[in-house]
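Collaborator request log, item 7. Partner lab (contact: R.S.) asked for a structural prediction of NlpC/P60 family protein to inform their binding assays.
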Amino acid sequence: MDITLNFTPYTFRHKNILYLIALVAFLSSCGTRKYTVKSDTKAAKAADAMANLKSKQLYRFITDWTGVRYRFGGLDKSGIDCSGFAFLLEKEIYGITLPRISRDQANAVRRKDIDNLKEGDLVFFSFGGNDVDHVGVYLNNGFFVHASTTRGVIVDDLTLPAYQKVLVKSGSVN
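Returned to partner:
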């Protein structure tokens, strides 16, 4: 008994095309998945704080300075320190002339409870003991902007334990 299978090249080509179509359909279905950023991430919350600023001039000022590296005594975009950043921001955005040093800036502020802070208020820290040695500008929803010694000008979360432990004063300029 002789059995002959009758496959033609067209049949194989037809099956290969069907397999290819099925493969493409399968792979493209994977590509339609939507990827979203969790809205509770630190970056998303910082972006929300920026988006919720009342002053668009403040928004532009911060975005213009974001990422500028820290330089002790610096007062320009080649490098800036925390008190220099607060000094320039308060002067340009609010027309307020602050002292140049964070300790002196703290003395020019009327104390205010952290829960009552408004956009543009100042927050002061003591990382090295009892004296004020760092300053930032409050934005909203627990976020502030400052010139970090390690990350440069950045929007940061004031509710982080690292900041809560060293926060010594907050308030409005007198």
